[in-house]
Design a protein that fits this description.
Layout lengths: L20 H5 L22 E2 L10 E7 L7 H11 L4 E4 L1 H6 L1 H9 L3 E4 L10 H19 L16 H8 L4 E2 L3 E2 L11 H9 L6 E6 L5 H16 L3 E3 L1 H14 L22
Parallel strand pairs: 1-5, 2-3, 2-7, 2-8, 3-4, 6-7
Helix pairs in contact: 2-8, 4-5, 5-6, 7-8
């Protein structure tokens, strides 16, 4: 597996359109799950994760939101998540995190996971640039939240570049996605109804959903008013990526061991037990 489905538009550094003071003043809600735990199981470290685990029975969905934070969109997304008691994973750009650290801190305080999405959303870079992109973004996240990030998503889902290679070398699970809202598509990125429809009618247990909050994605934020309550009404729960990975690991550990493959050479004369 070399690449994931491409995002149709590159992430861009947001233009400040409002202050984040009002968002930061909101008191964080008390978590009802272990969403504050960002730890990931060892079996997933350094692995590329893009598909749901077939057979996984629990109705868990990992909502992931890329390219932020932005002072226009992220406070609205956080408000919707808080309103419906849902959790998500924000894959932030280090550049944006350095400009609006209070939004990063607020996301973490309210029980969401914050992961690395590079510093400036570059697709190609040298090994030296990769170090800066990964480490500086991790530093911005830790500075804002007091916690080390544990998950990484490469820009555009490209898994063959120097940045992704470095992330895997340093033990980050590379989180792609299995269900896209297509909210960067020129046809629908301003249409909350179509964005919501792409998610609501197609989930399977353990899906990783791709959305964006990097500025100019207000329709994505509004789509959450349909996505979250409609799926919750059907028994779905929105969790962070680390929560989903831990649930996968628990389920995998409980599965009976697989039977060994059949001995296809049983009929060969040389493999038969000698006749006494």
């Amino acid at each position: 597996m070399s690449t994931a489905p491409r995002e149709t538009q590159p992430g861009t550094a947001p233009t400040p359109v409002a202050t984040e003071a009002s968002a930061a003043e909101e008191a964080p809600v008390q978590p009802t799950t272990d969403s504050h735990d960002w730890s990931v199981p060892e079996i997933f470290r350094s692995h590329i994760i893009g598909q749901r685990k077939k057979g996984f029975p629990r109705k868990l969905l990992a909502l992931t939101i890329d390219d932020g934070p932005s002072p226009s969109d992220t406070p609205v997304v956080l408000e919707k998540l808080r309103q419906y008691g849902a959790h998500a994973t924000f894959f932030v750009l280090g550049y944006n995190a350095s400009r609006w650290p209070k939004l990063v801190a607020q996301a973490a305080a309210e029980g969401h996971c914050v992961g690395i999405h590079s510093y400036s959303h570059i697709a190609k870079c040298t090994s030296e640039q990769a170090v800066k992109n990964l480490h500086l973004t991790a530093e911005m996240i830790e500075r804002a939240t007091g916690k080390k990030p544990t998950v990484f998503r490469p820009p555009y889902g490209i898994t063959t570049n120097e940045l992704t290679k470095l992330a895997r070398k340093e033990g980050y699970p590379v989180i792609l996605w299995s269900l896209s809202s297509a909210d960067t598509s020129p046809r629908i990125f301003r249409n909350a109804d179509l964005i919501a429809r792409n998610v609501i009618f197609t989930p399977n247990p353990g899906e990783i959903i791709l959305m964006h909050d990097g500025g100019g994605h207000m329709a994505s934020a509004r789509a959450l008013d349909q996505i979250i309550p409609q799926l919750q009404a059907k028994g779905w729960e929105f969790v962070t990526v680390p929560e989903l990975l831990r649930a996968w690991a628990e389920w995998m550990a409980a599965q009976p061991p697989k039977a060994p493959p059949p001995n296809t050479s049983a009929g060969k004369e040389s493999d038969r037990a000698p006749t006494p």
